[in-house]
């Protein structure tokens, strides 16, 4: 016997529901309404609706749809002798039924459902949602049992993972802990490294985090279901302590979650450590914890309508891990599984239907199976006909259409391809592990059933063996994968994927509500990117006067140059909207070069580019800050690769013109040859150190432009290009390149609406950075103080000897704001800061503070500039501590994930990921104190132990370093300073002199030793400066 909901057609067998016969009869014959647990819709049982009730001898019989026009005589032969089992939202008569006339119902329509499928008509229903599975697990160190946990997840494939006692620290990345196929988990770690809760959902579910305002270990997520109500999943953990206040706070948090989502289906699971409660009777039978604590949870669960579904012990003979829900009828199964810790796992299977995202299947070209001889022959034949039928006067859109169609035809017909699979699996789980897993499960079931100590011991032994074998199989797989010859990319891919902390874009806030849908997030980001565009009035442009600069000479693009650019393409460069892969363009570079050279020359001569080159797919990249805010994402444009080749040619001509006539300011160090962050810092810090040595005060203002690349107004940029000599066809080409562009955001396989790009230089293009340098090139001309630029990062500083100097800096700051207003740019006041470089106890302070747009700028004792922490006294202690902490964290990551790999792999990883951190701009901040030198060297000494896999305290690290042939980091910094010196300055380091200084008088304390003095008797305050550590020695420098 069963009933069905009129709204969602969900069937309920009375045996599965635990419904008594009396309740069934009441629904059948009385005016009783009932609520469907799946859709929350009311159903009314009246005498006229008796045909709604379904009677079936087999309670597991399939209930399927049939056609609405199906009549009674089309039923299966055996249906005539059985009681009719049709169920419909429209009542229907029983034409052949043996009912009394008093029980008959009027004829309201044809039957639409039946309990027994019709023979030959039982078609498979579309979009049948599989049950939603949740795995609740107490891990007791997620990292230590990582491989065994992954194997358990692989075997039961849960949609939701609810974990307790993760024992994770913030330094452990989510990507290290979670198996593939799951969204970025929600974590709440305890500061002491114990406890902790985690929630993870499969990546085809639509979910977002629920804010829980509580200091307890509790987190929640909201999963979208079909219908109005969502599913709220809560992971909670109560430590085993008699703390009533903590218990009340945890109960209050659960109340707030459920009260805040009154129509939601709620699952609450975790280790509550409540062994005293008999959950069958909801009574307190034990005395391990106080009655007040136990009753607190019982009353809370009763008040919010939560039912406990775990009716078996989860640790020993006690039920510590709970799975509570406010819709117990939707839980079809709740069973124990062998755990990875000393708790059994709980697998709950529910009938709720969750919304599933359609997996994004990516097309993969199988280049190794492609016949490139045939492809080259085809392109060569096409090229000859193309050159003969087109000229530089042919419309560039028509030319591009021919090229694009030919290349796509080659891809579709001559390059085999496949689609990526949405399935995720653990390739290291071999047949031996699967067999061992089955043995462990059988031993687990036998131990639970018999409760004999021998069976329990056998299960525990198999569990230990399983954990050991999982760990061994995983590391063997990683080792074999990374050490395979001829495939170095696997190493970089493995490290990159393991370090990837988050995937995709987090749910974004809109009007205080988190948006989880991919299309909604894409539109939010697109609107945010478009909101910063500048609206320019082209009728009122600044007057730059007559240009004194010559024009860029005319040039012709030849095939050989195009061929070289195509041949140097990176094979795995991301495609643009035209979907033409770089691998194909690189392989057919010789055959395609004449075709593209003709297209490029026609485009340049006509001053136009194909319209398809103006379309950009924007990929959002998270910067920093709150990941739920769209403004904290940076747009990166993916444009046509062939368009980028043309940009390379234009870029080389313009930059050659600018360099030849020395048009770019010397204060700009960004995106220029032989200039870098380190060279800019060297010049800047030397200026600051000079003032500090001369006992002066220097006020430095760090300026930050808001969305600088996206705000560049096109007409003003073109005005400056013309002023610097970019004119005629070349200026027309750039004008067409900038104007009429459109963009759309690509996110998780979805596209946003298309938006017109009205300003800015596209980030991700070749010409974009150069165009920005030209636009900002005249900024230093409006100030009298010193200014340093690195792309859009600016540092304005001045030596302060009197209040007049402060007023001069105020005027320069006003002039910079005037430049900002004139050229329609904008400063981000919140990120602009003041750093006062001085050792004076009473520095000179002006009558009014430095301000931008009426907002007073913050004055700090230290600030980060171009990745280096500058302190007011130019002490590098904080910077050294910062880079050592970061490098040690990265080294710890490598130790966790490469500990079983050979020394060659470990050494490569150290030199690639750790050493660059401690050597970035080292010529600027090279410390002189023994304490800081030793702290940096300790990073390499730890790395030596890691590479050698020798952590014995009796082993000599110096011998390890000698065997590895690693120079000390101090020697490498000395060498770096020689390289960074100007080429016209012949110098040598006084490095050896400084090192030997500390070897003298070893018995004396370092703190009591006075700092070394210069020959002129002054204390060397510029110990960070490269020039300080050098003296002229042409012969040594030439070596």
Automatic annotation (TrEMBL):
Keywords: Metal-binding, Zinc, Zinc-finger. The keyword Nucleotidyltransferase does not apply. Gene3D superfamilies: Endonuclease/exonuclease/phosphatase (3.60.10.10), Zinc/RING finger domain, C3HC4 (zinc finger) (3.30.40.10). Residues 67-127, 999-1039 are annotated as: Disordered. Residues 67-78, 90-117 have a biased composition (Polar residues). It holds the Pfam family RVT_1. Residues 999-1012 have a biased composition (Basic residues). GO terms for molecular function: catalytic activity; zinc ion binding. Residues 602-870 form the Reverse transcriptase domain. The keyword Lipid metabolism does not apply. CDD domains: PHD_TCF19_like, RT_nLTR_like. This is Reverse transcriptase domain-containing protein. The lineage of its organism: Eukaryota, Metazoa, Echinodermata, Eleutherozoa, Echinozoa.
